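Example record used in the benchmark description.
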Amino acid sequence: MAFSWLDLLIVIAYLVAITLFGAHFRRSQRTLHDYFLGGRRLPWWAIAFSVVSAETSILTIISTPGIAYASNLGFLQLVFGYLVARVVVSLLLIPRYFTGDLFTAYQLVERRFGKGLKVFTAALFLATRALAEGVRVFAISIVIEVIFKTGVLASVLIITALTLFYTFEGGLTAVIWTDVIQLTIYLSGTVLALLLALHRIPGGLPEVLRVAHLAGNKLAVFNFNFNFHQPYLFWSGLVGGTFLSTASHGTDQLIVQRLLAARGKVESQTALISSGFVILFQFSLFLFVGATLFAFYRQFPPATPFARPDHIFPTFVVTQLPPGFAGLLIAAILAAAMANLSAAFNALASSSVVDFYKPFFRPDADEKHYLRVSRRMTLVWGAVLVLIALLAQNLHKSVLELALTIASVPYGSMLGIFLLGVLTRRATSSGALVGALLGLSTLVYVIKFTSVAWTWYVAIGTTVTFAAGWAASFISAKRAA
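Model output (structure tokens):
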């Protein structure tokens, strides 16, 4: 089957509808609190859905089934670490975020260590988040390429422009409520694809289980072997996932911004912990889809071998689903892409304005001025991400692992700085900076000269940053005495 006109109309109707829905929140955007924190009027359950949607992206939908297709369900071991991290962030960092009127995660660093280290951590966030999100924008091109067999530039520009429009107009309120809708769409769409795949396989679910067993138990989750070079083992998943998600949900403005938008500390903690149950269901679903497609393509081999695992699920959607259903599924995939993009645009703009523009360029301007600048920065970051996406087309690694690897490099230093500020009184700004630089240098060495799995990167960076930062602070204090 091919992508029909009906499918195309469904995709276009979805894109228009979600854009108009997000843009209508413009009326409530009067201050920076409205634009970047939703006026702190958002319910916890909507924030929970938005957290999941923000950390999901298109990569989860197209890459996670590919991981299970090529191996097994071992990726879930990383997700268990994500659950532990939510508890750590809820108990350790969220209470600190609600002790003052904060807009960004990096204002907490400023309060403990001063402006210099705030600029360092905020700059790390802007640089690496832009790179990671640029790769995610490139992932959109994979879906478009499978559907239309044409160049990707025009399609990427259209998706980016539509997402920019409603983010520009509606701020975080638009981002969160469109996230709720988009999460519902892409989870429902994926369940539909799974049911249709099981229906198409002679023998259904029992046949999937049989093929999975014959292929070496593709439904296996746990592997308790210890090996620094394999990413999806129990200890590398649990420890690595805990450090990775503690950093992303505790220090990355993309997620912290949503937690700050809650009505209070308790609602913020409730939103974060409840999002863990949704993320566990979501990854279990996507991985089982991959295992099911493995059984499907054993019985119905593709005409040409898949160029990369990321192509498997989009190819199934476009070539195997009946007219109408394919359009719904592609709309679901694009929903994840737009949800993540809108989150990135708003988070990048908020840090740019609050951490850099407002304190260093126009500290005494009125709210209308900051609102105008915030919208302009949203547009600027949209252009930057499109450029990075176009450059990412020459890369051949799994886009999910690539984006997580990029994010993991600064996360260690950032989490180390936050933990120095929260857990110790001895740490100084200069000591924390020394620790962060050593943490980054260590990770560059590990990535370039070793084969340590990417799941350990944040744990290594955090440990080096914390230990070196504490030691440097102790030495400098001793010399001063």
